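# nightly structure sweep
# worker-07 picked up a monomer target from the shared queue
# config: single-sequence mode, recycle default, output format = structure tokens
# input follows
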Amino acid sequence: MDKIEIIEKKDFQTLFEQITKVEQQQNNLRLKKAEYKRVKKENLKAEIKKLKFENKKNRSNLIAKLKYDYENDLELLNKSIEDEIIILQSQKSALKNQPKNKKEKETSEKKLQRTIQIASLKQKTKNEIQFQKELLKRNLGDQEKTKIIKQNIKAIKYNKTLAIRKLNEKVLFSPFVRFFKYLLDLIVRLGLYFKRLWNVFKSNCPNIAQFLVFFMLSNGVTILQLLLMPLIKAMLNNTDLVNISFQFGQIGKNIDGSKYYMFDYAKGVIVDGKGGGLAYFLSIQITLAIAQIINFFTQRNITFKSNSNPWIAAMWYLIAYLAITLIAAAAQGLYKAPIYNLLMNTWGLGSSGELIADFITMIINSAISFWVFFPIFKVIFKQVPEQEVV
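# output follows
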């Protein structure tokens, strides 16, 4: 059995990192306050609701007392946290007022020496990581050792980065490099700032934050569909599938007496929104299938952070996907032909109109899925206590 040694992360922080650490502590206090306020507010509502169902003579007095205690608790917490934030702010000011390390322009000899040290450090890191990966292969069955090895790899990479920073700390680089470093620092600062804002917002409004993440990911998946659809359609249009009709799911008749199909793809090229054959049907369904597989994993892991059984969630997702596909297909007969006819014939855009119509129909399909899937995801993508995970 391999004996796994724990590799500790080295402690070396630049002035910027020290200031960032203090800012993070301040932000954590604000998050703590927001979370405490949210929990206390929910508890207050539950207590008031409980009292309203009870037939007590002094009910209004009890509710008034609950509200007074709630406000009093919040006031005490605010004072306590504000005092801690003020202390941290003074630490931050002291760090900002510290004299900066004097940087010197290095000679060619020192630059060569530093370059050799960095190259040697990178090679050493590469060898250490390779050794850890070999240990990982030999201990895949042991969860505890696997966890330690993965942490060791992270620590090795972290220590390498810090060591390189230490070597570069007192070097006065060229104006271009200094500008590039300043730009990177600015991007990092902005990223941390918006991350702090987002964390506070997410703590105060968790449901709205979740919906916004769902909205952004859904839009990303829709853009992917718009990119894939023309490519898959162009490939399948060059096959004999375009000359095979696919008409399925008759649910009545059109105004002119012809049969109304949920999936109506007559053989031949698209004319007035009809046609395209099996090639057009498959291009839509393959695009949707790829997009929905990606959507399943991203929404489950990022938006809802679900830890429930993935196979059960996948089963319900598939059922919901098939149901939504049938509903969207049935609705498509109402708008598909008029859109294609308008763009291809009335406006005379021809093949360009067909491409635009493809985009519009795909967007409508995505919009239907978007509004139906969110409440479904809230049900199938659950977070359960670790001991209850199947």
